[in-house]
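# nightly structure sweep
# worker-07 picked up a monomer target from the shared queue
# config: single-sequence mode, recycle default, output format = structure tokens
# input follows
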Amino acid sequence: MRNILSVLTLSVVCASTVLLSGCFPVVATGVVGGALSIADRRTTGAQTDDQAIELKAFNRFRERFKSEQVSLSVTSYNRVVLLTGFVPNEATKAEAARLVSQIENVRSVINEVALGLPPSVRSYGADTVLTTRVKAALIEAKDLQANVIKVFTESSTVYLMGLVTEREANRAADIAARISGVRRVVRAFETITEAELKRIQTQSSGASPAPGAAPAANVAPPTPGTTVTPTNDVGPSVTPIR
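# output follows
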């Protein structure tokens, strides 16, 4: 566990240094992600779209919001965008969601932006540590495929994203909720059935799917200007802290 934590801490801290070095307080959390992952449950097209969405959102926010009171983070997974951060009023919060929803290929937007002043650099550092600890705990869990779960932390609230089954969602959220220092866990997962998971794994391994099998859980991009709605019917849910 200690070795895993050390490696993750180094990689996450390096990424945070790149993201926080600019003057404008907007973070595109996946821009430094690098090469696409072959172990990802998203299609390579979705992975490419997610990186493009985050970069476009970053540029739109930088052009639109000049105030130091605006601090926004953008995390896109399977073309579903999670917005977090701090803004001074409801109008700015709504405008941020509108700007993102108009980006090509965005399916939906989960707006978790809070009203208030941006946190300190120390707070960002504490969030980085929590993200690292949650990732390490997920890796330690033998009944989870940790690399398909995206973890992002804002003001001690841990957000979990990914294409997962209900069992995986519950297990990952429970693990995150047990990490010391985590104040809140928000599940922003896109849930799939066990049968859909098997189809995705079969396609990833290069094997031919069974005759008559439905396609894997990859959703075609919509037309630009999609409605701002939660990714699932019930929307993101909060897991109680243990």
